[in-house]
Fold Aminopeptidase.
Amino acid sequence: MTYTPVSAMKCFLWVVLVISLDLSSANSISSYNHYRLPTALRPQKYYLRILTLLENPDDLRFAGSVQIVIEALENTRNITLHSKNLTIDESQITLRHISGSGSKDNCVSSTSVNPTHDYYILHTCRELLAGNVYKLCLPFSAELNRQLFGYYRSSYKDPVTNTTRWLSATQFEPAAARKAFPCFDEPGFKASFVVTLGYHKQFTGLSNMPVKEIETHESLPNYVWCEFEQSVPMSTYLVAYSVNDFSFKPSTLPNGALFRTWARPNAIDQCDYAAEFGPKVLQYYEQFFGIKFPLPKIDQIALPDFSAGAMENWGLVTYRETTLLYSPTHSSLSDQQNLANVIAHELAHQWFGNLVTMKWWTDLWLNEGFATYVAGLGVQQFHPEWHSRDKGILTALITSFRLDSLVSSHPISRPIQMVTEIEESFDAISYQKGSAVLRMMHLFMGEESFRSGLKEYLQLHAYKNAEQDNLWESLTSAAHQSGALDGHLYIKTIMDSWTLQTGYPVLNITRDYSAGTAMLTQERYLRNSQIPRAERVGCWWVPLSYTTQVEKHFNNTGPRAWMECSNTGESVPTTIDLLPGPEEWLIFNIQLSTPYKANYDARNWKLLIDTLNSGEFQSIHVINRAQLIDDVLYFAWTGEQDYDTALQLTNYLQRERDLIPWKAALDNLKLLNRLLRQTSNFGSFKRYMKKLLTPIYEHLNGMNDTFSSITQQDHVLLKTMVVNVACQYQVGDCVPQALAYYRHWRSEANPDENNPVPINLRSTVYCTALGQGSEEDWDFLWSRYKKSNVGSDRQTILSTLGCSKAVWILQRYMEKAFSPKSGIRKQDSALCFQAVASGQVGFLLAKQYMMENIEFIYKYYYPQIRALSSLLLPFSEQVSTMSDLNKFRSFANDSRHFLKGIRQAMQQSLETMLTNVQWMDRNYQHFSRTIQHHL
């Protein structure tokens, strides 16, 4: 079938002239109410033609037509599509029969809608017959929205002319293609797309595929039609297009796809790093997966307004400016590492997610967990000096352990029935826990069988859809062929225990020192200590790696045994024998190869503590040192260990000089800080923190700018992190030095060009200065925000403007955060609110502000209210009294209407608050006494 521009134009020309009825009010309500589309029809190809009008800022609109070539798999009289907030002139809809036997003409007799599921249903004059192919043409138009979802507007200030420059962009994942054009908006309905964009010739049009041809518009002066090549079959959520006046930096590698990095013209000089790193990591994945990147080109573009961090649209990857642009004079090392991780994550999706896509959002984790895990491998390949893989492991586990120890967590693979449930799945469980269980599988399968299983899976399901069982089949086959897994073991049996049930296990390891054995039992680990043991059920297949004080085999991450589950899903206690003598420690879970916590008997903990507090502490692998800190502080929190044991262990940190154990410690100790700083005994905790931090602060030369002489890159991050915490506890000269840097900056004649504050310490210096400073200090930083041209710089400033301790300044800042005229973009509002709510003074203000203004905040974000969930995080970390918890429960109940789209996040916040209250009841007095002994 050939595409004829004439028929498309008949379907199209009306849109500039006609304003028709909005469907939401005009149609009857359909009786079809299932959350999934019917399966009688399949789209084969879309011809999508869109005219975008960007000239009049008061009326930014688009109008277009879509021709969908549809195959009937069963007889039906209905065509059920998705459409949301689109105006469709029903008098212009056409339906033609284009191949197969039977009647040659058809039409649409009436339409109906289902607003719950965004269905737009066309009832046909004659039955569509199985085996026949039809072409449906629908004209549509809408405002270019301000919501950052669907087809939306963005803008930036041109510094030369001081004018606002408008552009358009798309964000369709998970279910917003329906806001841009009528379509079968589910991942399983893959089709080819021929996109044609109409726009003023001063702009550039970009889409998933390369440009095929550009023609003059037939009636609008200075307008063009830009047609793109036909795409490979793909899901609607990966379709992307943009009309903009950006510049690009080319960076194609030999034998590689055409590669370009786009940004607004006054930021193109910040594209160098992304343009260099992107093509390299794309070629690495071609080798890793053994499959060439299937498109002729790939563009990555930095958008001034973008809701997510980035989006993997096939061939046109979209980013926030902070995740694609890098300035050597303004961006810190952690900014650069974050940027590399995001690029590697999105490019991994070109295979995992784009080439092979999950059948339904239940298996979103297959996309996100894989991209998160493989991104770590990609970054490690080109920046081994960052040790980002090890840091990534720890971050993934710390983040997912916290969430997954709640009763209100959810399985990695979870049933989905509403769009709001899809959006709630974009969380630490899908990304971080998903990544951790894949790493576990990689380690127990070994490199060869893991990679050959992945390659088989990708080849079998290329351009199609799959579910996790398909992946398990390919990996089992590879593992059995290579002998990596015994013939009686199946990947599905093992991995379903990790992906289909909520939570993770704690392994209780009790040694019999005279017999040289250890008994292992498992149960679900929960932070809510009121849940009785009988309800902590669950059984996980656990690959057991371990080593002893004599062996120290910390590179052997493969399983030496398995902890299995019975046929009925009960845990089977496991005995390990041939263990060392009573004076030697035993460590399970080498390099945190599996997501579980290990709790030992008192004697084994003591042996470990003795080694850590001796000159031999580095004989334990750095990741396992981090593991011991994280585990013991969790167990002390919930009462499986006492705080005396935990503090004896953390005491060794005075000797520790590595990033990863310090990260584990400071993440956990921050939670104690948030509870204790509201109490009379905070002084003791502060002195304890000073004692731990002073040696490392001095070792790293404190607040002085010694970064150029640091040879190990991860020590740059260690220094950044330590100095930040040191200023919070007034360690050494941290605060006076920070204030001196800030004063120096304020005295600069041109502070926007010359900033004497070391790049990696800017966040700490700004926060410390504003915490101690005046209104003039705050206003000075706000001016720098408004004049900055670097995304990461602006983000650093926004996150530190909440550090003031002046009530009225914080109140003013919160109001700015939710004001469209303030200069703070909607995507950054939550960052500003969190910055206020995380502070001791700001916490009380933000709590009151949210409770009193929930309707206003809801309307500000509507309909994309998922952003509301990130506003809850600082409260869940700080509420610690029963009366505050009850106020939040009442608030959640009274504001049900505004919070219904984030029900899961609200439950998790309330449960976290409950665990804080429990901690205060159970531990506060004991902890306060214990910490005195450790000063």
